[in-house]
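Supplementary Note 2. Why include the ligand at all?

Several targets in our set were suspected to adopt different conformations when bound, so apo predictions alone were not considered sufficient. For every target with a known small-molecule partner we therefore ran a joint prediction. The input for PRP is given below.
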Amino acid sequence: MVGDAAVAKDNFPTSVINVVEHPLVAHKITLLRSVDTGSAEFRALCGEVTLLIAYEALRDLPTSTTSVTTPITDTESLELAGIAPAVVGILRAGLVMVDALLTLLPQARVGHLGMYRDPETHQPVPYYNKLPTSIDKREVIVVDPMLATGGSAVAALDSLVEAGCTKLRLLSIIGCPEGITAVQQAHPTVPITLAALDDHLNDRAYIVPGLGDAGDRIYGTL
Ligand code: PRP
Ligand code: URA
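The joint prediction is reproduced in token form.
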């Protein structure tokens, strides 16, 4: 279904799923998929794709009017409203997206949720949880490159809802219908932005065609 994302996307409400269709994103996704792309290039590409899709994912961040003095005059101008947003990375692979988002939102606070997939059950196993103060008042951007079964994303969103968060959005690089459906069922109001919507999961719950194990490719632990 790669290259036919528009068809798959139509199966989901547009308020929920946004697949960023852009030649730069598509080109970088092809490089990310390639088995010949090494860790250093893979990390850089993940960061670049994150910047491009974050631009779309954050389009509706609330703004307020402020005053600014330019070298020419005083004027009214927009700034991000409210307290600083929070970027929450799902470890390990989400870290590479956190760094990219911090270049766009240097004022953001950062949370970390550690979990890995059990190789047999494919269920997320949590091992770490550290969230910024006042997380419940912040716009929260959850980042993880892969949305496969959706188990990790749902577990992350569950713990954020438990912490009182209401302004949540999920940013992933590659997703598949199974993952979207899982998130949509558990958290129907959370918007999901992807760089690519792939076809399906294989019998080991890896995304097909996907890019393999994101964490292993980022950190060279293959
Ligand atoms: C990967 C990925 C997601 C998860 C997605 O992490 O980064 O967190 O799998 O799969 P799911 O949608 O089926 O839950 P992994 O568990 O391999 O841990 P790692 O990042 O530490 O390698
Ligand atoms: N986690 C990954 O890193 N890749 C997949 O395809 C599925 C889960």
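Residues 146, 148, 206-207, 210, 213-215 surround uracil (ligand 2) (CB under 6 Å). Confidence is low (pLDDT under 50) at residues 1-7. Comparable summaries for the other entries are listed in the accompanying table.
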